[in-house]
Design brief:
The chain folds into three domains: 2-125, Serine Threonine Protein Phosphatase 5, Tetratricopeptide repeat (Alpha Horseshoe), CATH 1.25.40.10; 141-206; 213-279, Herpes Virus-1 (2-Layer Sandwich). The protein has twelve helices and three strands; from the N terminus they run H-H-H-H-H-H-H-H-H-H-E-E-H-E-H. It has helices at 2-18, 22-35, 40-53, 56-69, 74-86, 90-106, 114-140, 142-167, 173-201, 203-206, 238-247, 267-279, and strands at 227-229, 235-237, 264-265. Strands 2-1-3 form a three-stranded antiparallel β-sheet. It is flat, with a radius of gyration of 22 Å. It catalyses: S-ubiquitinyl-[E2 ubiquitin-conjugating enzyme]-L-cysteine + [acceptor protein]-L-lysine = [E2 ubiquitin-conjugating enzyme]-L-cysteine + N(6)-ubiquitinyl-[acceptor protein]-L-lysine. GO terms for molecular function: peptidyl-prolyl cis-trans isomerase activity; protein-folding chaperone binding; ubiquitin protein ligase activity.
């Protein structure tokens, strides 16, 4: 009986979610969880609604609880990765996003999510790279380090103030999320402007390095060394796509049939990869 009541509450929550009424959806999903606390899908539903409200810590709690109940939980790992990235934890987000992608790749019922999760893995990798580049540049210039540290401290104080107001009921979920987004965006804009000033002053040492996305393999999410192209026009690292085909003879993104004899060297992309490595000798580029 409790499972049936929980299902009815979930359906009502889904209706509010589709209407963009996320606070109402969260309330109904919470009631459903009270009725049937061992259903992992209820926690992912609430996590998704909380993502829309910017309640990152609560999203993480829901996802971890859902994963405890169901380990091979693609949605929970995907939502978890999004919240972790929003909290500026790109390393943890990358692990969660890769897990979601692996689970998605193994399932023939979740192929529609493959493109979105693949793109999000790359987003996490870019964030991880940005963090490493920030640290590299700050190590090169003590003044830049001091100024960015000051900006971070100011941002964190403002975020804590908004969080306190939200907990005290002064700000609602939506207002708190919007103010936090504005604070984060203002901080990012100031940091970008600051780094541009230092890059202009010392271009040889302070210019940020970029990794072109077209050089990145969609399976391992690493820079390719020996790219091949499929008959569907997608390029992959030779070793990773061959291993994938041995397990599952299909294109990992489109799910169309794919065999080793369908692969052809991507000569132009190989030249671009070689040129990139020549320009950055000795760099491992772990994202």
């Amino acid at each position: 009986m409790s499972a049936y009541a929980a299902e009815q509450l979930k359906e009502k929550g889904n209706a509010h979610f589709k209407a963009g009424e996320y606070e109402e959806a969260v309330a109904l999903y919470s009631q459903a969880i009270q009725k049937h606390s061992t259903n992992p899908l209820l926690y992912t539903n609430r996590a998704n609604a909380r993502l829309k409200l910017g309640l990152w810590e609560e999203v993480i709690d829901d996802c971890l609880h859902s994963i405890e109940l169901l380990q091979d939980n693609m949605k929970a790992y995907y939502f978890l990765a999004q919240a972790q990235l929003e909290l500026n934890h790109p390393n943890e987000a990358l692990v969660s996003a890769k897990t979601a992608y692996d689970l998605c790749s193994k399932s023939f019922t979740q192929t529609s999510s493959a493109f979105a999760i693949s793109a999000f893995v790359l987003k996490c990798k870019r964030a991880k790279w940005e963090l490493r580049e920030r640290d590299r540049l700050r190590r090169r210039n003590a003044l830049l380090d001091e100024l960015e540290t000051k900006l971070e401290q100011d941002r964190n104080r403002e975020l804590e103030s908004i969080k306190d107001q939200h907990e005290q009921g002064v700000l609602g979920d939506v207002a708190a999320r919007e103010e936090m987004d504005e604070v984060r965006q203002t901080y990012e804009d100031k940091v970008t402007e600051l780094r541009n000033v230092f890059a202009i002053a010392d271009p040889q040492n302070m210019t940020k390095r970029e990794i072109p996305e077209y050089l990145v393999d969609d399976i391992s999410f690493e820079i390719m060394h020996d790219p091949v192209v499929t008959k569907h026009g997608h390029s992959y690292e030779r070793a990773t796509i061959i291993e994938h085909i041995k397990r599952n003879p299909s294109d990992p993104l489109t799910r169309e049939a794919l065999f080793i004899h369908d692969l052809r060297p991507n000569i132009a992309l190989k030249k671009a990869c070689d040129a990139f490595w020549e320009q950055h000798p000795g760099c491992e580029f772990e994202w």
